[in-house]
Each structure stands twice: as C-alpha cells, then as structure tokens.
Design goal:
Belongs to the GPAT/DAPAT family. Pathway: Phospholipid metabolism. Keywords: Acyltransferase, Membrane, Transferase. InterPro entries: GPAT/DHAPAT, GPAT/DHAPAT_C, GPAT/DHAPAT_LPLAT, Plipid/glycerol_acylTrfase. The chain is α/β, with parallel strands linked by helices. It has 29 helices and 21 strands. Strands 1, 2, 3, 4, 5, 6, 7, 8 and 9 form a nine-stranded mixed β-sheet that branches. Strands 10-12-11 form a three-stranded antiparallel β-sheet. A hairpin with a 2-residue loop joins β18 and β19. α22 (473-488) crosses α23 and α22 crosses α24 (519-532). The radius of gyration is 27 Å and the shape is globular.
C-alpha cells in the first residue's frame, strides 16, 4: 500500500511532469471550429458507448435493485409495481442525459470564458496521455481536488479538448434546481445526488447500482470529489468515503479485473469565490445556486484571475492496493446481487486509500509565489518593508522547495518583480504604500460603521488572505508540528519529543490531512526534513535544535499560531458555557460570538513560553478564530479526545462538555510556543522599559494518556490517546 500511494520520505525526489498552456492554441484559432471539430475519443476496450436509455434499463432490471425493491415492498406493504415505479422516478431524477450537441455548446462558451478569466491554463500533457491509456484498459474514476465551481467545468473542457472520453460527474441537487442551466449540465454529463440519503434504502440502492453499472460496463469515466464539497479555506478537507466504497466494490466482488483511481490537482492563482468563501466562514448563508445569480455573476469576466494549473496524477490501481489486504473470496459466499456490508479489511483499505489519494492531490498542487507572500504578510500584520519582504520571500522559496513544494516561480525574473506581480494581482488583499506592503484591512471604523462591522470587514480580509496561505500548509505542517513539540518537550529525547508531537498530531488530525495511524511515519518525515534544512540535529535517541535553525523553527511555529489560538478560544468558550446541554447546531454561532467579543474587547490574553502575559490588541491572527471551519474542526478534536460527548435526543444532537478535560486542553494550548521570537520579546521589553526576565515556568504536564510502546527501527515510540481524568 505504502509503495503505491505514499511518496518517498523526501518529497523533493519525486519527478513531476512539465506543464503546457492549453489556452495558447485557443487564442490562435477559432472557438467555433474547436467546438465543432471531429470528436472520436478512445473508449474502454473499444466498446461502443451505450445510450442513456440502455443504461437506464440495465439499472432498473439489475438483480441487485430488484432484490431491494422486493425488500422495500415487503417492509412497507406496498405493491411491487409501485415500488418499481418509485425506483424509476428516482433514477430519472438522478441520471445524466449526455448529449454531444450540449457538450459542443459548452466547449464554445467555455473557450470564451476561460480565455477572458485566465492568463493561461497549464496542464501536464504526460498525465493526459496516461489517463487516455488508462481509460482504454480499465474502468477509471477521476478524483479532482475541489476549490471552485470551475473545477468540474474545467475537467470536462480539458477532456474534450484532448479528445478523451467525457466523464459523468456526481453533482449536488442544488444545481438541478437551476432553470435551463441544470438541464444543460445534465446533458453535459452531470448526474444529481442528494447531500444525504437519510437511511432511504431504495434511494441508496438506485444510486449505488447506477454508479456500479456505469463502472462495470466502462460506460464513461466517473468523476466525483473526495472532499465532498468545495474547500472554503484553501486546505484539503477530510475525505468522504461513501462514493469511494461504491466504486471499489465491483472489484472486491470480482465483477471487474481492476479499477484505476486518478487523483487530479487543480490550483488557482486567484479563486473566483474568494470573498464569498470568507463570508460563508463568518456565518453569511451560502447563496442559492440560481440561473439569475449566474447571470449576475458575469461581472467577474472583467477581473484578472491569473494562472490556473491542472495536474493529472498517476493512475492508482485498486488491484494493487488490495493485494494482500482484502480476501475477495469471502464475497463468493453470498450471491453478488445481495447487498452486504464491506468486511473490516475492505473498510480499512477504502479509508486509508481516501487519505492517501488526497495527499497525492496535495503533493501535486502547483503553488504560486503569492502563497508565500500571503504567508509572510499574515505573520507580520504591521506590514513589511518591500526589500525585507522580497528577501524573506526568497528565503521561504528555498525552504519550500527543500521540503518538496511544487512551486511555480519564474526563475528568469528577479524576486522583486515576482513579489510585485503577486501584490498587483491581489491588490484587493494587500496594498503597498510608502515602500511597505501590508494586508488591505481597515484600521479604523468608517463613517457610520460600528465596531462589529469593522471587525467583520477585517475578518473577511484576513480569512481571504489565509485561504492562500493555507494552500501551502501541507508542505510545512509536519515540520511545524515537530517545531512546536521540540520547544514544548521537557527533553531532547526522541520518545519525549514524539509524545508532544503525537499530542499535537491528534489535536489537529481533523484540521489537516494526517493519515490515520501514520503519526510515526509523519514524525520521521518531519525529523528528516528539519534535518535536511539544518534546523535540527538528530542522533539515534535524541533530536535537538541547531544553532542556525532558529529562524526556520520560529517561522514554522508561527504557521500553527492561528490554529492554536482558535482552538484555545473554543476551549475557553466551552469551559465558560453555562448551558448544560448545548445543541450542536448552536455551537458554531455561539463560539463565533464568543470569539468576536474577545476581539471587540481589543485584548486576547496569551501566555508566551516564558510565562509572561501579553496583551495583543487587534492581533490579526485572532480573526481566524471566527472561522466556522476551524470551530467545527476544534469540536471534532474535542469529541475525539473525549472532552465533549455528542448525545442524540430525538432529532436534536446535544453536546455534553467534560470541563475538566476541556480546561486541561486549554491549559496545554495556552503554554504552547507562540510566534513571538526571542528578539520580538526583547523588542517588546525594550519598548515598555522593562528589565530582562528570567525564563518562566515550564508548560504543564501533558494530560493523562493511554500509552502503547512499540519499536520502529532502533528507536522507541509511544502512541498516545486521551484518558478521562
């Protein structure tokens, strides 16, 4: 499994394909000629494509669906014919009706749109060639990352442009309600599914059989988003495994020889929904998808969105994944058409594969220079002199490349031009004045603007900028966790440092893509990368900070600072919440209001590693504590750590808080190192006229753990789980 899905310990060793601008040809030739050209894609094993009507008949008459129809009829006491009609209605509501004429229309319109929006759309053509061969040999499942509505439009456009078979795309029911547009999407390959099935056995049977029939027959590549929805934060979301279970089942049952899963990484210089996402994270309801809303959004055509990158990864063989992991013979004990729960080995394989595939998406995500600039500006909210910003960006570029980042940085241009181009493209997020660059957020209320409105506007700017910083977090997150662990641990012994690392790894396992059960592997990777950049020195039993590694470690710790602050605020809220049984649906608004009151008060008390209380008025990173995504992830961590228990009462889910455990976690987060370097603390002391302070108390001991010790190589590691005090 690891050899198939997990990259080498040094990600920089991985060879990546060259990228070509697919719009270059479109700018030189007729869009109408491109849309109306001969389209004859190679198909699975040379089979003639099936008509949508034939696919419908195959699904409705399948043994699996007929078996469930019989079960539902017996359970509900309805005539079988009525249940059959309901199944047919569900299928008609769901199914696509692919029409080449509609595809050609979209090809023409999207050529115009993409040439207006983007300077270039760069694609790895070697990956396209690998995909073309895979489609002919095996059923293929396309798994793109999901950052924008543009993702699925661009995927179909690329496949049409390169003469590949068009995918059928799992889309939410929201799009189906769009007049005209919804039907056109259906005729371009979209099939519509509910966000949740709510235990509807018949709907699940129709849906799963529809997908599996297309897969078994090689009808077309199937496309869906592992993350389930668009990421509003720029980070990858925890994968959903429901659809992945369905598409892998035909292999487990021996109905196909193999299935190829193709991760696709889509990245943007500038995201179209940038400010919309920030507002959604702050509680503004998501606008409903409507045709009129789409027409009103045409003003975006006047904006410049820079460069878009699409990278097709190597196909991952399900057969190779399952080798030695799943005994498929057990599926022969029950007729194939009878639904059965996947065995534990199959469930574990699907879950592990989902995380590894998202990591493959991350590793092939092309990053632009602005992500580095946004990272630096967020860590320096008072702004930076342009020469310093350029120097720091060049340093950060070298660090990112040494950690294996897929960075698209023009080598032929001086750093000053590269940084300036990023600032110009994102002039709505950053401004340059008097030779200094800083975030474009209001400092004082406007005329008639309340403090709450000012805080909201500032939060929109900070969260929008943070969405670009978040794009690079997958490169740094493991070394960042180790950097904090090194400063927090009471010892330089590897096992002690690993205990702190694993505590942080567990807390943030819902915030970042950290593969379950891979904490030791992530620890080793972090040690290797920090050693590679000479930030630490590692021996068989010890790991210590090197003399020249302070700047690197301080930067990495600062990356985690907004998340440490945000999680601490959530713990504070839960400890102070007086309601005994808090409803889950009220948690996010209440936690956001609590964080807002801290910001409006102008003071968020932090305790630095030296034990000195610091009052940080208007600290920009505090605004990230308002993010609903962070609050939900913090709640998931507290549930995992048994500091919060979810209790279902009727239709409502309530939260029972173990205040002792939540307070213990808050204390631990409070003492973790902040982004204030030693020099920063010295400057604050000098400005305040205070004498130099002696080192403060050590952090409190880690909460009680259930510790299991195991050997890996010659070192001893401990896996830790929260224990109820």
């Amino acid at each position: 499994m690891a050899s198939v899905l997990y990259s080498p310990r040094d990600p920089g060793l991985k060879k990546r394909d060259e990228l070509e601008d697919m719009l270059e040809e479109r700018r030189r030739s007729s869009d109408a000629r491109h849309a109306l050209r001969c389209y004859a894609p190679a198909v699975y094993k040379g089979l003639a494509p099936r008509e949508a009507s034939a696919l419908r008949g195959a699904v409705l008459q399948s043994d699996a669906l007929q078996h469930v129809i019989g079960q539902v009829s017996a359970e509900c006491g309805e005539r079988r014919e009525l249940v059959q009609e309901e199944a047919a209605h569900l299928l008609d509501e769901m199914a696509h009706r692919l029409r080449l004429g509609t595809v050609r229309f979209f090809a023409y319109v999207l050529s115009k749109v993409f040439k207006t929006l983007f300077r270039s759309v760069r694609v790895n053509e070697e990956g396209v060639q690998r995909l073309q061969q895979a489609i002919q040999d095996h059923p293929v499942v396309l798994l793109p990352s999901h950052r924008s509505y543009m993702d699925f439009l661009m995927m179909s456009y690329i496949l049409y442009t390169y003469d590949l078979a068009l995918p059928v795309i799992a889309a939410g029911m929201d799009f189906m309600s769009m007049k005209v547009v919804g039907e056109m999407l259906r005729m371009s390959g979209a099939f519509f599914i509910r966000r949740s099935f709510g235990g509807d056995k018949l709907y699940w049977a129709v849906f799963s059989e529809y997908v599996k029939t297309m897969l078994r027959t090689g009808y077309a590549p199937i496309e869906f988003f592992l993350e389930g929805t668009r990421s509003r934060t720029g980070k990858s979301l925890t994968p959903k495994t429901g659809l992945l279970n369905i598409v892998m089942e035909p292999f487990f049952k021996g109905e196909v020889f193999d299935i190829h899963l193709v991760p696709v990484s889509i990245s943007y210089d500038r995201i179209l929904e940038e400010s919309l996402y920030a507002r959604e994270l702050l509680g503004v309801p998501k606008p409903k998808e409507t045709t009129s809303g789409l027409l009103k959004a045409r003003q975006i055509l006047r904006e410049d969105y820079g460069v878009m990158h699409v990278y097709f990864g190597h196909p991952v063989s399900v057969r190779s994944l399952a080798q030695g992991r799943v005994k498929r013979s057990q599926y022969n004990l029950v007729p194939r058409h009878i639904p059965q729960r996947p065995c534990l080995a199959a469930q574990a394989l699907v879950g592990e594969a989902a995380f590894r595939l998202v990591r493959l998406q991350e590793q092939a995500m092309v990053l632009r220079p602005w992500t580095l600039v946004a990272t630096l500006l967020l860590q320096n909210p008072d702004g930076m002199d342009l020469p310093v910003l350029e120097e720091q960006a060049a340093w950060l570029r070298r660090l990112a490349l040494s950690f294996g980042a897929f960075l698209d940085w023009p080598d032929c241009k001086p750093c000053r031009e590269v940084v300036g181009a990023g600032l110009a493209l994102h002039k709505n997020l950053a401004r340059v004045s008097g030779g200094r660059a800083r975030l474009a957020v209001a400092e004082t209320p406007g005329v008639g603007q309340t403090a709450e409105e000012l805080a909201f506007d500032r939060a929109v700017g900070v969260l929008s900028c943070a969405s670009y910083r978040n794009q690079i977090l997958h490169v740094f997150i493991r070394p960042a966790l180790l950097s904090v662990a090194l400063q927090t641990a009471n010892s330089s012994r590897k096992d002690e440092v690993y205990t702190c690392f694993n505590f942080l790894w567990t807390v943030f396992s819902n915030e970042f893509i950290l593969c379950p059960g891979a904490s030791v592997q992530d620890f080793e990777e972090a040690c290797y990368l920090l050693g590679k950049c000479c930030a630490v020195q590692e021996s068989q039993q010890d790991i210590v900070m090197s003399e020249g590694g302070h700047a690197t470690l301080a930067f990495l710790r600062a990356l985690l600072d907004p998340f440490l602050q945000g999680y601490q605020v959530v713990c504070q809220y839960l400890c102070k919440e007086t309601e005994e049984n808090l409803r889950e649906n009220k948690f996010v608004p209440a936690a956001r209001n609590f964080a807002l009151q801290l910001i409006l008060a102008g003071v968020l008390t932090l305790v630095a590693s030296g034990g000195r209380s610091l009052s940080l008025a208007g600290t920009l990173k505090c605004y990230e504590a308002l993010s609903s995504d962070l609050q939900k992830n913090a709640l998931a961590a507290l549930v995992q750590l048994e500091a919060v228990t979810k209790v279902k009462v009727g239709d409502q889910v309530t939260l029972k808080v173990n205040r002792r455990a939540a307070s213990s976690l808050e204390d631990m987060l409070e003492f973790l190192p902040r982004n204030l370097s030693t020099r920063d603390c010295e400057r604050e002391r000098e400005a305040a006229g205070e004498p130099e302070r002696s080192p403060g108390p050590r952090p409190p001991p880690l909460p009680r753990w259930r510790v299991s010790v195991h050997l890996r190589g010659s070192a001893v590691y401990r896996d830790c789980l929260w224990l109820e005090p």
